[in-house]
Amino acid sequence: MNPKLVKILKIILPLALGVFLIWYSISSATPEERQKTLEYITQADPKWIILSITMGLISHLSRAYRWNFLLEPLGFSVKVSNSFMAVMIGYLANLGIPRSGEILRAGTISTYEGIPFKKAFGTIITERIIDLIMLLLIISITLLFQSEHLLSYLNDKISNPIITLVILGVLLVLGVLFLKIIKTSKNTLLIKIRQFGEGLLEGIKSISKIKHKGAFIFHTFLIWTLYTAMFYVIKFTVPETATLTIGPVLATFVIGSLAMSTTNGGIGAFPLAIATILVLFNVEKPAGEAFGWILWGSQTAINILIGALSFLFLPIVNREK
User: Fold this and answer.
1) Rounded to an integer, what distance in angstroms lies between the CA atom of residue 145 and that of residue 33?
2) Do residues 289 and 274 make contact, with C-beta atoms less than 8 angstroms apart?
């Protein structure tokens, strides 16, 4: 298949899926349900939304600060303002092209702080590995308290988990074979790929050289505590979800996090996933969708605003460079 066509499809398909899910969510609801969802959203108490947005911004700032701990062992002292704006630009880019944010984030910090792209990108991969570990930890905790509801939801969405495991296994084997070929090949292109990989590996290994390990761990837990707290406070914006305990909120967090990767920034998929899981906790669909739209809409709006401002102010803040 034409590489350009593949690239276009990677951009269009997730967005198209998001638009379809929005259409499906609206068309499958009765007029009464649509009216109810709209009322929940318009009547939401703004103080809880503002609190959730504030928590989100603090988590982004904490992520930028934590990133500097990974960049420091590589021999670079980075301005927190630059790392923060690079993080926000990355979030903005992910709304347009899924997974492009990590590349743009590495490119931004490379441009303004002189860090080799492959090393900067390696530290971001390290971050993603840590994020995955934290998400798995939260999933494990949630399963302890809400296993029945969570497994019921996942069983509905994953028709055959054995096929999924087989596919992952095949990909793992192919990956190992590819690494062995890269390691010994004399091909010019493969040598360049190997050198790039070595740069990535150096960035990933920076975690073992962190000087402030305690602070790094603190910020990691702070980021994910704030993520879950963002969900928790939004429950107070909708009367039907206000009485939810921490268990159901963690379940929505897990499902919402998984839904974010299915479309551009979770558009369409996030509110629908939240509504679906909350139905299992006896929350009506309109209330669940309102919960999802309020949370997704407020966080997405602030990411667009701060991301756009970061594009504007980065050259101004670094005009001496």
Assistant:
1) 30
2) yes
**Cα dist from 80 to 83, 201, 249, 312, whole Å:** 5, 24, 32, 17
CA distance linking residue 231 with residue 229, whole number of Å: 5
Instruction: Decide: helix, strand or coil at residue 297.
Output: helix
**Cβ–Cβ < 8 Å for 234, 154:** no
Are the C-beta atoms of 260 and 270 separated by less than 8 Å? yes
C-alpha 41: how far from chain center: 24
What distance in Å separates the CA atoms of residue 321 and residue 316, rounded to the nearest whole number? 10
Residue type, 256: G
Structure tokens at 197: 């990989």
DSSP strands (E only) in the chain: none
Question: How crowded is the C-beta side of 287, counted as CA atoms within 13 Å?
Answer: 18
* CA dist., res. 186 & res. 183, Å (int): 9
Pairwise CA distance, residues 155 & 18, whole Å = 22
Would you say 295 and 230 are in contact if contact means Cβ atoms under 8 Å apart? yes
Tell me the three state secondary structure of residue 71: helix
**Full pLDDT tens readout for the chain, 321 residues:** 555 555 555 556 555 665 666 665 666 666 676 787 889 899 999 999 999 999 999 999 999 999 999 988 888 888 999 999 999 999 988 887 777 788 899 999 998 988 888 888 888 988 888 888 898 888 888 877 766 655 565 555 554 555 555 666 776 677 667 667 766 666 666 666 665 566 556 656 666 777 888 899 999 999 999 999 999 999 999 999 999 988 889 989 988 888 887 777 788 888 888 998 898 888 998 999 999 999 999 999 999 999 999 989 988 888 776
